[in-house]
Design goal:
single chain; four-stranded antiparallel sheet; five-stranded antiparallel sheet; 30 strands; 4 domains; Jelly Rolls; mainly beta
Amino acid sequence: MATCPGPLQTATGSRFFNTYQLHTPPATAPVCVDVTINAHCGSGNEIFSAAYSGLATGYDKTQLCGGYLGDAGVTGLGDTVPNVTYSVQVPSDQDFFVVVDTINSSTETCSGIGNGYSVTVSGYYDTSTIASRLALTCPSPPAVCAPAGTQSANVSYPPPMVSGNCGASATPSCAPSSGSAFAVGSTPVNCSVSVGPANASCSFTQVVNPSPDATISAPASVKASSAGHVASVPEAGAGATYSWSIANGTITGGQGTRQITFSAGIAAPVTLAVKVQSAAGCATSASAVVPFDASAGPLGFYTLVPCRIVDTRRASGTFGGPSLQGGGAQRVFPIAGQCGIPADAKAVALNFTVVGATAAGDVRLFPTGIGTLNLAAIDFRAGVVRANNGVLSLAGNPAGSLTAESDLNGTTDFLIDVNGYFK
C-alpha cells in the first residue's frame, strides 16, 4: 500500500506548489506512468514531487494522503540531487495529477537566474506488460586488490538497477553477494529480480588482482661508508613500477627497477624502503633495516694539514675556475687522492667558503651521484664572504667525489679546504 510522501510529512506552514493535470488512456489494466523531475534550485533550496489520482482542483496541501499514488522518494532534489524518476500505477482512463512542492516555504524557492525545474511524464503502458519490460542492469565491477600475502578480498559492489517495474517492490539478489570474499582471479556474479510472474537477470565478472610481494632481500649487515651492496624485491610482472628510498645511505644504481645497488653512510643503520605497484594498480610498501657490522669497529679519523683542494678563482680546471654558475648548475670535484686523502677514504672533514657572489643564493654540497639535495650547505648575500664546515661521506657514485650545486641569479667563487678524513 502506498504511504504519504515522507519529506512532506514533516513540512510545516504554507507551501508553494504547482500542479500538472493528466489523464490515462483506456487499457485492460492499470497504466504505468513514469515521472521525471530535473531541477536546479540553488544551494539550500529543494523541491519535492508526488502524484495523486483525481483532479488537481481537489488537491488539499494539508491532506497529503488523499488520492496519493507515489512520490520521488528523495530529499535534496534541486540542491544535492539534480534529477529523479519515479513510477506510479494509475487506473486506466482516469484523471491524475503531478504536484511539485517547495518544502517549508510559502514562496517559490526554485526560481531566479539559472534556477528552475522541468517535469516529464512518460510511459503510459499497460502494467500487464511488465513481464516484457522488466529489466535488470548490472553494475560495473570495482577495481579490487587482494591484501599483500593473501589470495582473496572482500568485495562490495553497487546493486544492480531495476527498470520497467512501475514502482512495484523489486529487490534484486546476486551470488556471490556484495561484501563476500572473492578469490584472486575472475569470478562470475549472477543477479536476478522478480516482480510477480516477471523475471529479469544480468551478470558481470568481478576481478580481484593480487598485490605484489615487496619483501626486501638485503645484506645481513654492512660496514660504515661501504659501497657495492645489493637489495632487491621479487619480480612483479610486466608494467610494474618500483620506487626506492634510503636513509643513511645512497642508492647508486637501479632506481626504478626491482634491484638496486647502494652504499652505506658513516653512522647508524641503513634503512631501505620500497613501493611496488603492479600493472593492475595494486601496490605494496615495505622497509628493511640493514645494521652496521659491529665487528668492523668505528671509523678512524686521520688529521691533515689544512689544504685547499678547490678554489674557483684559480685558472680553469678540475679544481679551479670557472666560478659556480646559478640556476642549479653543478660542478663535480673528485677529491679522493688530493691533499693526502687516500682513495679508500670513507668521509672527509672540510670547510667550504663562498667569495665574491654577485647575487644572493645558496650552494649545496653532497656526495656525487645521489641526486639533488634540498638542504643548503651555505646561504649567502651578494658581496659577503660566508663559510661553513661539515663531514661529508665519499660513498657516492663515483666514490671519492663531491658535487656542488649553486642556486643564484649570477655567479660565485667557491673554496673547499680539508683538514681530515675517515677510513
